[in-house]
Every structure is written in C-alpha cells, then in structure tokens.
Amino acid sequence: MPYRDVSPFLRLVRQNLLGRTHTPALRQADKVGCRSQPPPSLPKGVSSSLSANYYYMRDGRRAVEPEEVVAINSSSGPTVLLSDENEAAGAVTVTAKKPKLPGVIHHFD
C-alpha cells in the first residue's frame, strides 16, 4: 500500500524547490526501528511490599516536626548559636558581618 503523499508532479516541484528529497514527518510502522526495552530491574524499596504497605507509613509529611531554635538573634547583642548539650554552657557568639561596599566609583561627568 503506498503511503499518503502528493501527486508525482507536485513531488517533483517540491523536490526542486527544496533542493533535496522530501522526508515526511509522519512515521510509518514498517520504517520505524524496534524500540523494545528490557524490563526494569529496580531495587526493593519502601513501597515494594504487597501487605502492610499503608500510605500513612510512607507519607513524608507526617515525619515533619516543629522547627528547632538554632540561634538567638537580638538587636541589643550579638547572635548566639545554641549547642545540643546546654543552651547557656555551649553558646557561641557570632559577630555581625558588615556589608560589602563597592570599590572606587568612577563619575562620568
């Protein structure tokens, strides 16, 4: 069965105008190569089991906890970083960094 195309006269006109033979954008099944793939071999994960695989056990939103206070920032003193052992004994002070200023400014006037 011939593929859908224009008449031979219009095919010659198209070939002369393009300067090459026309490649149709439509794909025919007998001209396309085989694209079969082997089945995937994925490692076993959390969702691989067939039983006891409930959504609430896999839901990442349920693992979220309230935020922890890592540093105390006050306007009267320096920023204090807190440690895990004790807030007062393991506190570390951090000096505030000054913003970077540009170098020599050139005026074009």
Automatic annotation (TrEMBL):
Primary location recorded for the protein, binned into one broad class: mitochondrion
Keyword terms, alphabetized: Acetylation, Electron transport, Membrane, Mitochondrion, Mitochondrion inner membrane, Respiratory chain, Transport
Subcellular locations according to the entry: Mitochondrion inner membrane
GO BP annotations, alphabetical order: mitochondrial electron transport, NADH to ubiquinone
Keyword Mitochondrion: yes
Keyword Mitochondrion attached: yes
Transmembrane segments: none
GO cellular component: mitochondrial inner membrane
Membrane topology (UniProt): Peripheral membrane protein
Biological role stated in the UniProt entry: Accessory subunit of the mitochondrial membrane respiratory chain NADH dehydrogenase (Complex I), that is believed not to be involved in catalysis. Complex I functions in the transfer of electrons from NADH to the respiratory chain. The immediate electron acceptor for the enzyme is believed to be ubiquinone.
Summary of subunit composition and partner proteins: Complex I is composed of 45 different subunits.
Family: Belongs to the complex I NDUFA7 subunit family.
Protein name: NADH dehydrogenase [ubiquinone] 1 alpha subcomplex subunit 7
Organism from which the protein derives: Scylla paramamosain
